[in-house]
Amino acid sequence: MVEVGVILLMAVFALLAIHSTLLRFAVIYLAIFSLLAAFLYLLYAAPELAIAEGVIGSGLVTLLYLSALKRYRVYTIGFIGDGESRQLTDRYISGVEDSAALAKIKDFFQRREFEPQVVFVSRPLEDALSDPHFDLVISETPQGLIIYGPQDSYAVVELELMFRMQGAGAGIEFVRYAREEAQ
After folding, report:
1. Element spanning 92, H or E
2. What span, in angstroms and rounded, lies between the C-alpha atoms of 55 and 32?
3. pLDDT at 125
4. CA 116 – CA 110 distance, rounded (Å)
5. Burial 73-102 (b: 16+ CB within 10 A, else e)
6. 92 near 81, Cβ under 8 Å?
7. How far is 120 from 141, CA to CA, in rounded Å?
8. How far is residue 109 CA from its own chain's centroid?
9. CA dihedral 21, 23, 29, 31 (to 10 degrees)
10. 14-57, pLDDT tens digit by residue?
11. So where are the chain's domains?
12. Would you say the pTM of this structure is higher than 0.70?
């Protein structure tokens, strides 16, 4: 009867790990899942497996996942299309994703060990600039791209210098803004 309870708890923590929106919680749920598996091995009279699962599965692997998550940094880029393209069709999104400027921006952040994540936004520029989830906001205009970055971001300064040094800055304007503090 205890085994059934442990198996049901394992199923619950497996589902929690799968559906968790925060990666750190998912790692913790997997560690609990592994401890429950170790307890189940102990119930089935396999102490060697229980010790191995407890030490390796819930201890070492959890530490490795948490240390890897500590290094994992996502750089969120909000992309706002011009008036006509705010409809965000698949064709428009794939065209923007394949553009040379966005490819250079993604490559720039990947070389600095960030994972660039482009989010297509269909709301006004002011809303996107005030959203704390965006590290960078790109606005498409008929004249080209305007890249908005926080004043205190060295990454934005380096990105602007890269575009100027490569001579690829034609049609790209950089604007720095002061981020409002959350109240």
Report:
1. helix 90-97
2. 12
3. 86
4. 7
5. eebbbbbbbeeebeeeeeebeeebeeeebb
6. yes
7. 15
8. 13
9. 170
10. 999 999 877 788 899 999 999 999 999 999 999 999 999 999 98
11. 2-71, 74-177
12. no
